[in-house]
Specification:
seven-stranded mixed β-sheet, 23% strand, globular, binds ligand MTE, binds molybdenum atom
């Protein structure tokens, strides 16, 4: 795993940020996992490869206090207020469709076969606010390779838990539940695509999508589906929640693109959460700053048509 990123960097090149990481035990929902031995050097190499941003992360309080998770309400502070009711133990994920080893996988078993690492990613909501988040997680590709993706698979679909008793937003019908998202298989297999289980040195806060959520840093935040209970490998593009709700405003791809405005607002700039009332907006970057890594996935595609 770490070997894929090995370069000639050595310990003396490690930034203070990586040093901060190496001192911590990164927590995963079910138990603590010591990754200190690999975290420092691996992080340095990741930075060198452009996976981890040097921008200052938002605070834990900002990241876990300003959320979109409509199952718990539509206010930015509703998830933090209401998500405590979500039971995440036990938790299992159904993996089905075009895979060699379909089944209901316990969260602990999923964690057993992967390497957790930290990725500090920019996060850009379609509503034009942004954050920088130090996620802990593993590459979705690692999980997909473990279950064996069959040759006919072209897309991956994801679903969030639906728990009317624990999620006050479900009965309000804001969306057609379950919350659904999807990726093309090559997007899902891209090394930037993360299954996140925590942030900072904490297990994933429930309002951020415990115990397991997707993070696709070059796409608008709504693609990064939370509290996942099902992953399906399909031969066709799956229906996705925001696209079903309004296909003119929310495309299947939803790559961050400052040149393609939302029908109701500009996507050219963004407000970084926590910047204060008078902070200047910052320019939004093509593919949210991950252009070098992901532009090749879309060669020959019209990004205005396939928005
Ligand atoms: N199940 C589910 N996943 C979801 C959402 C949601 O309402 N329900 N909101 C999305 C949106 S619009 C954004 S911007 C991000 C917010 O993630 P955060 O609260 O961790 O910042 O979660 C995404 N994933
Ligand atoms: Mo969002």
């Amino acid at each position: 795993m770490a070997g894929r990123y090995r370069s000639d960097l050595n310990w003396s090149d490690v930034t203070p940020k990586a040093d901060f990481l190496s001192r911590r035990r990164l927590m995963a929902g079910a138990g603590a996992l010591a990754v200190g031995a690999m975290a420092g050097p691996a992080m340095a190499t990741l930075s060198a490869n452009g996976f981890t941003t040097d921008e200052k992360p938002n605070s834990f309080e900002e990241i876990s206090g300003y959320n979109n998770f409509y199952e718990f309400g539509t206010g930015k502070d509703d998830p933090a207020r209401n998500a405590a009711a979500l039971t995440i133990d036990p938790w299992s994920v159904k993996i089905d469709g075009l895979v060699d080893k379909p089944g209901d996988y316990a969260f602990d078993d999923i964690l057993g076969g992967v390497t957790l690492e930290e990725r500090i990613y920019r996060f850009r909501c379609v509503e034009a606010w942004s954050m920088v988040v130090p996620w802990v997680g593993f590459e979705l590709a690692d999980l997909l390779n473990r279950v064996g993706v069959q040759s006919g698979a072209k897309y991956v679909a994801f679903e969030t838990a639906v728990r009317p008793d624990e999620m006050p937003g479900i009965s309000r019908g804001y969306l057609d539940w379950p919350y659904r998202e999807g990726l093309r298989l090559d997007e899902a297999m891209h090394p930037l695509t993360l299954m996140a289980t925590g942030l900072y040195d904490q297990p994933m806060p429930k309002q951020n999508g415990a115990p397991l959520r997707l993070v696709v840093p070059w796409k608008y935040g709504f693609k990064s589906i939370k509290s996942i209970v099902r992953i399906s490998l399909l031969d066709q593009e799956p229906p996705t929640s925001w696209n079903m709700a309004n296909r003119r405003e929310y495309g299947f791809y939803s790559n961050v693109n400052p040149e393609v405005d939302h029908p109701r607002w500009s996507q050219a700039s963004e407000r970084k959460v926590g910047g204060g009332l008078f902070a200047a907006r910052q320019p939004t970057l093509m593919f949210n700053g991950y252009e070098d890594q992901v532009a090749g996935l879309y060669t020959g595609m019209d990004l205005r048509q396939n928005f």
